[in-house]
Each structure stands twice: as C-alpha cells, then as structure tokens.
Write a structure and sequence with these properties.
This protein has 256 residues and is of the alpha/beta class. It is 37% helix and 24% strand. It has helices at 43-51, 79-85, 102-114, 120-123, 128-140, 156-168, 186-202, 214-220, 238-242, 245-250; strands spanning 3-14, 17-28, 33-36, 58-63, 72-73, 87-90, 174-178, 206-210, 223-228, 231-236. A hairpin with a 2-residue loop joins strand 1 and strand 2.
C-alpha cells in the first residue's frame, strides 16, 4: 500500500470551539475509506481542511501528487492549488453546470486540468482531443447515452454521477466524496455504490467519503474513521469499528 493523503495533528478552532482536534491519519491507496460521526463531529470541517477551503490552526496536510512523487505539504494552499496537485472533491450539493450538456461539463473539467484557456474555442466540439478525454470519463461513470443531455434534465442520481465525473476529470490521486448517495432512492444508491467500487478497481484513484447511510458505509468501506467532537475515536475495518464501544456510544447512541 502507498500513503496518498496524510494529516498530522490537524486542528481547526473557531473561537473556543475545537472543530477538528489533533487528527492524525494516513490514507492508503488500496482502501476505500469512509469518515463517519454524529452531526457536529467535525467531518465537514475536516474535509474543508483537506481540500484547502479552510486553513488549519494547527497541524499539517500532505498529499501524494498525481505524478507519483513523495508526499508534499499542502497545508494552507488554496483549493485550486491542491486540486492541481491531485485532490478532487465531489460535493453533497451538485455543482454541475445545469445549462450545459454532460460532455460540455466534462470538457470544462479537462480544460482546468490541461491549463487551456477557458473560452468557447476550448470547449468547441471540434476539439477532438478534449472531447475524447471527456468521453473516457463519461464512459467510466456509465453516462454514454446521456452525454448530449443538459444536466438540468438529468435525474438526481445521474446528476450525482456527473458530479463524480467532474471530480475524476482532473486525473486526481484522491477523490473526496461528500454524501455521495444523499437524496437517492434505493436503486440509485446501489448503482452509486457499484460505480465507486468499479472505478476504485479500474483506476489508481483513491476514494475517501463521508456518508450517513450506514448500509452504504459497511458495504463500500475497507476502512472507517470515526470522528466525535472533532477527535478521531476509532480507526479500523467495518467489523472492528462496529464492535467499538466508543463508536456505539457516540455514533449509534449506545445501540449494540
């Protein structure tokens, strides 16, 4: 296994509130890792620290860039800089361009990766290389039949797939998925789980996700991290975490 993302004593304080309290973790390339915890546990703040949306008040974040070099310190860098190095994030609230087709959304993602100028010439359908790169990602998320469809006309489940595709479109080392099955019905949820598992097997991308649906967490995860009041209280396999008394108390309300 290779460590692709690492935190050391990561902290974020808001006034007297310690939202993330000295969290040290190493994310391995071979694992699908889920981060769980009760509301207010610090999951969103932790994600924001990893992706550069917030600066830590203590500790460090290190990322293995997409070129396979050694871990580099990205603490305090901007979201754009961290994304350029190899960390992408798919948000719970869709950030797709509703008025554009699926393939045009992916062209824009590829443009950002390739450092092309974001103008009409760059996203023109005559740019064969750009279109081919976009289609490769579209096929990866099983949206080939919808590539010319405006995102505004997609189902919620398919919009979530586009969100994942946009994260993948920058050739990331690590993708942070924020509640990937939120708002989905049972069928859409199963398809999203299958999709993440398939992409994880087919690519070198490492997935880290937050998720409230414990069925999804237990189904998809190789490893689970549990946060409570900003602190890491458990780290292990699904079986180990579900048997942990502190987890039962903090996250499951003491249920056996």
């Amino acid at each position: 296994m290779t460590t692709v993302l690492e935190t050391d004593g990561l902290e974020r304080q808001f006034g007297k509130l310690m939202a993330v309290d000295g969290v040290s973790v190493s994310i391995d390339s071979d694992d699908v890792t889920s981060i769980i915890g009760p509301n207010g546990a610090g999951k969103t703040t932790f994600y924001n620290l990893l992706s550069g949306r917030l600066d830590p008040t203590g500790g460090t974040v290190k990322l293995r860039p997409r070129d396979g070099a050694d871990l580099i310190d990205v603490t305090g860098q901007t979201p754009y800089e961290i994304n350029r190095l190899g960390l992408s994030r798919a948000f719970q609230i869709n950030n797709v361009f509703e008025g554009l087709s699926v393939i045009d959304n992916l062209r824009i993602a590829r443009i950002s990766q390739n450092e092309r100028s974001l103008d009409l010439r760059s996203i023109a359908r005559s740019d064969a290389e750009l279109s081919e790169e976009a289609r490769e990602v579209i096929e990866m998320v099983n949206l080939e039949d919808l590539e010319q469809t405006k995102c505004a006309n997609l189902s919620h489940g398919d919009k979530r797939k586009v969100e994942v595709a946009l994260a993948l479109g920058t050739d990331p080392t690590v993708v942070l998925l924020d509640e990937p099955t939120a708002g989905m019905n049972a069928t859409e949820t199963d398809r999203m789980v299958d999709l993440v598992e398939d992409i994880n097997e087919q690519t070198d991308t490492t997935f880290v996700l937050t998720e409230h649906d414990m069925g999804v967490v237990l189904d998809i995860s190789d490893r689970i991290l549990v946060l409570d009041n900003g602190s890491l209280i458990a780290d292990g396999t699904p079986d180990e975490v579900m048997a942990n008394e502190r987890v039962k108390e903090a996250y499951l309300g003491g249920e056996a």
